[in-house]
Design a protein that fits this description.
Helix content is about 45%, strand content about 20%. An eight-stranded mixed beta barrel has the order 1-2-4-5-6-7-8-9, surrounded by four helices. By secondary structure, the protein is α/β, with parallel strands linked by helices. The radius of gyration is 18 Å and the shape is globular. It is built from eleven helices and ten strands. It has a single domain, classed as Alpha-Beta Barrel (TIM Barrel), CATH 3.20.20. Bound molecules: guanosine-5'-monophosphate (G) (2 copies), manganese (II) ion (MN) and sodium ion.
Length: about 250
């Protein structure tokens, strides 16, 4: 209850803000998307990582309000960049399981899109395999979102326990290969085999695929040799404050 109060207060004092990590096309280093990642500017402790407060927000139910703030802010910011002549790329937003299962999710997201003026194809929702455990429910939620024109990407792909059969049934636009497979990819033939297989499967299923957590040139070389088209990781860019991302946009031109 005390923690809940802190997070609620942080929301009302506007202490949350977003960083954006650019996603790059491997062949020409163009930015093709950005992932919004929330941070908390704590008055005395400095910037607090979501790894610390998201689990608390989920336990206390504040995640609904925090998640709603993140969605609105990410859409507002992307619309502002589009209007300022920035690249016409999507913003991806991470959803917690509770948000994914919240009633009327698609109409509520549509109202955020209308309010901010962002077209639906520029919003991508990152969900995880664990949210797909109940095929009946997830199918109807995903179909609704997809019918609105919103993109769906499967985060941390390869680390969950769900079956592959849902991939052929559900409107999933992109697989994000979890960074645990990338870390040792230059030395570990098993990781390399898994990554190559995910890339090939995505191509056959006509889905986009992006690799996360690329930190070195050597990792990038292995991914490019396996025809991975999109890359996200510290080797290209860490998550950036909005003004620094704008500088990265300007360098693209
Ligand atoms: O940015 P960082 O590596 O510290 O993020 C840690 C974790 O917090 C990641 O798993 C990321 O997906 C999650 N995260 C970041 N922003 C959000 C958000 O807005 N909503 C949710 N649900 N998770 C987020
Ligand atoms: O769970 P999710 O994939 O949403 O987590 C995203 C988190 O991964 C972000 O908080 C970001 O800070 C972190 N991240 C992004 N690129 C890298 C990277 O190259 N290496 C590591 N270790 N973490 C990264
Ligand atoms: Mn993510
Ligand atoms: Na991930």
């Amino acid at each position: 209850i005390e923690l809940e109060g802190y997070l609620r207060k942080a929301l009302s004092l506007n202490e949350f803000f977003l960083h954006y990590q650019p996603q790059f096309r491997a062949t020409d280093n163009q930015i093709v998307g950005v992932e919004a990642l929330v941070r908390w500017r704590h008055p005395s402790r400095g910037v607090v990582s979501p790894g610390i407060f998201i689990p608390i927000a989920e336990e206390t139910g504040i995640i609904y309000e925090l998640g709603s703030w993140v969605l609105r802010e990410a859409c507002r910011q992307m619309k502002e960049w589009h209007e300022a002549g920035g690249p016409l790329i999507p913003v991806s937003v991470n959803l917690s399981s509770q948000q994914f299962h919240q009633p009327n999710l698609s109409s509520y997201i549509q109202s955020i899109l209308e309010e901010t003026g962002l077209a639906p194809q520029y919003l991508e929702l990152e969900i995880t395999e664990s949210m797909m455990m109940d095929p009946g429910t997830s199918t109807s939620i995903l179909n609704e979102l997809s019918e609105c024109g919103i993109r769906i990407s499967l985060d941390d792909f390869g680390t969950g326990y769900s079956s592959l059969s849902y991939l052929k049934l559900l409107p999933i636009h992109k697989l994000k290969i979890d960074r645990s497979f990338i870390r040792d990819i230059t030395e570990n033939p098993n990781d390399k085999a898994i990554v190559a297989t995910i890339i090939s499967m995505a191509q056959h299923l006509k889905m986009d695929v992006i690799a996360e957590g690329i930190e070195t040139k050597e990792q990038l070389d292995v991914l490019m040799a396996n025809d991975c088209k999109e890359i996200q990781g510290y080797y290209f860019s860490k998550p950036l404050p909005a003004d620094e991302l704008v500088e990265a946009f300007l360098k693209m031109k």
